[in-house]
Amino acid sequence: MNLLNKTCNKISFLGNRFYKIYILFCLISFVASANLYAQKQPQNFNEYYAKALAEYRSSDYETCINTISNMPKIEKNQACFFILRGDAFYALKHYDKALNDYKDAQKYDKKSGLLQIAKIYSIEKKYAEAIDYLKLYFDTHNKLSLSDIKLDPAFSQLTETREWGKLMSGKHYNTIETELAEAQYLLKSGHISEALSLINVRIKKSKKYADAYIVRGDIFKKNKEYKQALKDYSKAIKLKGKKYSYHLKRANLYMQTGNYEKALSDYAECENLLPNEIKIKLYKAQAEYKAGLYEQAVSDLEIYHKYFKKTAEDFYLKGQISLAQNENLDALNFLNKSIKANPANHNYYKARATAYTRAEMHKRALNDLGMALDLHPDGETYYLRALVRLKTGDTKGACHDKKLAVHYKFYKAIDIIVNCTEE
Length: 423
Fold this sequence. Notes:
Elements: H1 2-40, H2 45-57, H3 61-69, H4 73-76, H5 79-91, H6 95-105, H7 114-123, H8 127-138, H9 146-151, H10 162-169, H11 175-188, H12 192-205, H13 210-222, H14 226-240, H15 244-256, H16 260-273, H17 279-290, H18 294-304, H19 312-324, H20 328-341, H21 346-358, H22 362-375, H23 379-391, H24 395-407, H25 412-416
Helix pairs in contact: 2-3, 2-5, 3-5, 5-6, 6-7, 7-8, 11-12, 11-13, 12-13, 13-14, 14-15, 15-16, 16-17, 17-18, 18-19, 19-20, 19-21, 20-21, 21-22, 22-23, 23-24
């Protein structure tokens, strides 16, 4: 009996000890979870806006609305938040709620939301109110061209009314704005020479109008005259100073022409001008990968994916970075995900074939290259398949692919693949 009591007391003591340890463990876990949750939550104005904007850009309108609705009131008293939530409501066709947000935005910025309000009134066939807000909008700077407004589906019925005719009888755009809009319309319609002639005349008259150089740069870019396009974009930046859309245009063209360091410089300027535009992180990562700055590319992708869901292209970029760093297993993991997300992109199979080739999994590499050629036959892929076939001893198949590579004007195949006999 004495022994039994001692044993029971010992068990009770150990039980209390384990219970206390368990409670302590739970408290630590709770605090850690709370800290992790706090880290994931936006902490300031910029983070809230960046998160909501990313959700909107991803067409996740409900989440965007919830993010803004649940943020602290002290941060909510900004016109941009009401405009963004209004845009999300508008996308969901909740026009009454959108209208309320746009009008709340005007309490902080009288010029904000004017076009959006006009669109809602036009949809609701309240044409007099729509016209009133369009008049106010026409008096603002950086307004859309008249052709863009007329082509907006929200105004499709309004443009057929007498009220619209009266509105158009007034002069809401100056001569330069009208000519630039016409040049842009000609460019979109494929009338490149006419657009160029019109904008050249305008530039001769107004050599210091930055937007004219941007339009002409767009024309040169469309005509693949990249050197002239870059010259005009740079001229516009020199005239107007730092402007997000100008730097973005030049950065994208630098990327297209393989000048990755200059592209990165412009993307960095875009970040400074609009720090909440997280999409720039993806563009930077692409440029950093091309420039061989792999760690920076991974870092920018991590920030980007805090706000945007991963897509097939994102997995593909991570796969390319892994291949460049000779991390073949990681590359296969990412490229498998990219193909699963989008099995119709030939580049994904071609990249995975490279990883398989390095791992000496030649059969799988050949299968992937075959898939890539089924989706998009090109000289480089035939060339790559010829190299893999040589590794497997299939000289006849390699020679066949060599001929096809040359046929598709991938002339590198002539020098590297040798000892092929004529069939």
